[in-house]
C-alpha cells in the first residue's frame, strides 16, 4: 500500500555531474550518510538520515542536462496520471517505467513549463523521514501562468486550492538561479486556458489569480493546516531568464548556520535569510549549482 496520498510530494532527488562532491556537500550540510544502489538503469545514491531515506543523488546521464533538484508526487497509478497530464495540457517527458522493484517513475511538465516527477510506490515508498532537520519540508511551483497551472494541478491530482495572503503564506522566493528545466521540458502545446471542465483558478478580491495558492490533497479540508505544497506567481522581481520551476525546501535547525556552512562548502546564497510566519528561510545553490531552500521551522510565528 502506498505511504502517501495521491499528489502528495513523496520523494526528491538531485541530478549532479559529480556525486562525490555532492555527497561531501550534503553530508556536511544536512548530516546525511549515503548508500549506493544498483538498478538496471544504473546506480543512484540514497541519502539517509538516522538510517532513514530522505533524498536521492543521481548522476547525470548527459552533461547537457540541468543540475537540479526534482520533486516527485505520489501516484496510485502512474500510467493513468500520465494520461491526465496530457489531457490537462501538460507534457509527459519520460513515460512511466518500473525502476526494478522500487517504484514506477515518470517526469512531466505543467502548462507553464515547470518540470516534476510522478512516483508510484513499489518497495520504495518515498520519504521515510520528513519535517525534521535534515529532511524534506515543502515544495512549491513558481510560474508565470497561474490560471493554466492551477487548473492543471487540480485536474491531475484533484488538489483543493486556497488563496493565501503574503503575510500568511508558506515561504516563497525569487532566486536568481540558473534554469531548473531543460529547454525540451516546455509543453508541446503551451496554453494559458484551463482545460475544458476545469474549475476556475483561485483569485484575489480583484479577480486576478492570487499570488500564492496552497494545495491540499483530494478529500482534505482546503486550509493551511492541511497544505502539502503550493503555487507562487513569478512577478517582475524574478529574472526574465528564469523559467518556471519547482523549489524544494529542506528543514534545518538554524537557517543562518546552514548558510555559513553552505558557503564554506562551495555553495552560494541566492536569497538571503528572511523571517516568515512559517519560519526563517533562505534559498541556496549547492557546490554544483542546484538550487534549493532551507527553512528553520522552529522560528515560525
TrEMBL record:
* UniProt entry keywords in alphabetical sequence: Dioxygenase, Lyase, Oxidoreductase
- SUPFAM superfamilies to which the protein is assigned, alphabetical: Glyoxalase/Bleomycin resistance protein/Dihydroxybiphenyl dioxygenase
* VOC domain ranges (all copies): 8-121
What InterPro entries has UniProt attached to this entry? Anthracycline_SecMetBiosynth, Glyas_Bleomycin-R_OHBP_Dase, Glyas_Fos-R_dOase_dom, Glyoxalase_6, VOC_core
One of the record's GO molecular function terms: lyase activity
Which domain of life does the UniProt lineage start with?
Answer: Bacteria
Low complexity composition bias: residue spans: 200-210
Matches recorded under CDD domains: SgaA_N_like
What are the start and end residues of every segment in region (Disordered)?
164-227
PANTHER family according to UniProt: CONSERVED PROTEIN, GLYOXALASE-RELATED
Protein name from the UniProt record: Enzyme related to lactoylglutathione lyase
Taxonomic lineage is: Bacteria, Bacillati, Actinomycetota, Actinomycetes, Kitasatosporales
